Amino acid sequence: MKRLITSLVLLLCMLATAAQAQEKVTLSGYVKDQASGEGLIGASVSVQELPGVGVGTNEYGFYSLTLPKGNYTLLFNYLGYVTASKTVQLAASQKLDVELGQNSTTLKEVEITTRKEDNNVRSMEMSTLKMQVAEIKNMPALLGEVDIVKAVQMMPGVQTAGEGTSGFYVRGGGVDQNLILLDEAPVYNASHLMGFFSVFNADAIKDVQLYKGGIPAQHGGRLSSLLDIRMKEGNNKKLGVSGGIGTISSRLTVEAPIVKDKSSFILSGRRTYADIFFGLSGDENIKNNQLYFYDLNAKLNYTLDDKNRLFVSGYFGRDVAGSKSFMMNWGNATATVRWNHLFSDRLFSNTTFIFSDFDYALGSKEEESEFTWKSHIKDYGIKNDYTYFLNPKNQLRFGLHVTYHNFMPAEVKPGKFSYVNNLKLNSTTALEAAVYLSNEHQITDKLTLDYGLRLSSFTNMGPGKVYKYDESFETPIDTVEYDRFEKIKSYGGLEPRIAAKYELNEVSSIKASYNRTLQYVHLVSNSTSAMPFDVWVPSSTYIKPQVADQVAAGYFRNFHGNMFEASVEVYYKWMDNQIDYKDYAEIFLNERLETELLRGTGEAYGAEFYVRKQKGLLTGWLSYTLSKTERTVPGINDGNAYPLRYDRRHSGNLVLAYQFSPSINFGANWTYATGGAITMPVGRYEYNGKTYPVYSERNGYRLPDYHRMDLSATYEKPRNEFKKYTSSWTLSIYNAYARKNAFSIFFRENEDDRTRTEAVKTYLFGLVPSLTYNFNF
Q1: Do strands 768-776 and 757-762 pair parallel, antiparallel, or not at all (unpaired)?
Q2: Start and end of every TonB-dependent receptor plug domain (predicted)?
């Protein structure tokens, strides 16, 4: 590790020396929203006199351009905003901050995204999806709850976990193989109400980006994807209040400057109120029931001086369900403290301190069976990331990440008069670390490479105990106890990343990427939806890190003056150390869980087609994915390959928004997918007077195909130039033609003929209307 860090430092010094030998100066600064003062992520800064020379702003709106001395015209571009042109005389390095004003919306042209028009062709990004919250809010939603994760599920290469759920699968990876970050803090369970809604309140979110492949070297820890969500910073110009009253919840957001143009804050809250209506019931059993969730997002930022800026953000959310005899609650808490520092006009650093906690509790209130069951996973981390703008053709990123994990899978405490026994499963801790270096290198005007290397390590530590087993790996023959911080097992490895882009012409390009990822924490679950009592476990003596290698290639093309963008991507992913369960596995409160797990390999491959219209009265996208996901695990399915539950051969989505008038907007979504794979009984036999089922091969059958249409209509009261208050009404219809999509299938004896078994399909939603009132001032 020391040698690698020393090599990185020497390399940077050599590059810096080479750059200083050239007679060049640097222009740097921030690109911000004129109305709110927030930094614009991914804004384009180009030099009119030097075609092909330019740079994009980073996650905080910062840019840096190193140019020969001279006079230049700089163009600052961000789709949906008025392009700014600035003339500069570069005789010495200088700083230039620019604020961009939003375009006024007209019926002639409605732009649904704030990316550069040809970003999909000219940027290095592939297998990457970026969505703006304003776009997501135009989509119809279940019970009027705007949901970022459900919008992500409408993208190519992404599969849903099931009807109404917010779990998602990316290119054949499991739900635990997605790294979800909220302001850089990991979110381990992103679901409310058993997965029907996600924990992300759209009113508090600024930017959403999903990486399905080509994951940058600064990110790791999961095999399949990165969902990077950034919260708003708060308006540093003026006070703003917004919110809404919906069918099941209400929201309120307040943002304002603390010191104008220097610091600001945002507070955003959301709560459902089904429990309030329970209290109005005359039925005592219903009256005492609880069922609600809440979210609170908070963030403040402070500009200390020209070189230092501080951000503090937090998220707190919880679900509560219960009755007189039963209780259950679960939730997430995250906190980040980030310090931006400019060492020079070309070296930008960000240091982040991170806390994340996912916990749940459930139990019985009945005296004879009273108990409380608790579990949690906590993370304490620090990230030190650097961006070095070497020159217009090279942008270096390097840094160090360290995370301390604390796993407490389950602890059961009985009541005073309860027959339930005390139980505490094996708790443990772990230290995860990584160092990385990458470079985005423009080789020629047409060819650009992004290459990097990540070195990660993981150490499973005490306190804890490890069982020793006999040859059958079923019966423990010894136990080894480990003290606090004592090493139990260590793993590590190199994770190379490389991507290439070649521009064929002004409107088309081809791209390719390869990345290897390692995953050291694993979710133990046998459900398709994100249940709160799923358990996260670390790599350990018997559970090895999961490994995935993915290659992808794509063709990207724009049409009709960038009105339409289109892409075709193909990918192949092979995975090792994949975890699955033995037949009839017992994972509930199992202290020796490793005896129920088997390990094998997996592969996933497919093609993704995507067409998007981003200008005009009618906007939206059409996507189609053809894919296959299989796993081969010795001991399952006679060692033959089998599909996973979320393997869907065909899936497609159509998302449309139509601006009928300045005050009326219509939205429509249609989604289709072939049915997920399931294991079904194919026969039965009798033994000693009892009947036992005979099952098919693992996931050998399919649920019926899934399809659904959602509709919405929004009326926005015309803005009066003398009044700052605006409001709107949105009517949404989920499952507009009342399709009875199968949520699950169970089997039972036929009432008329006990010798026959019948399959019964269950479904969750018919046609579901909702009405939401939104306001802003």
Answers
A1: unpaired
A2: 144-221
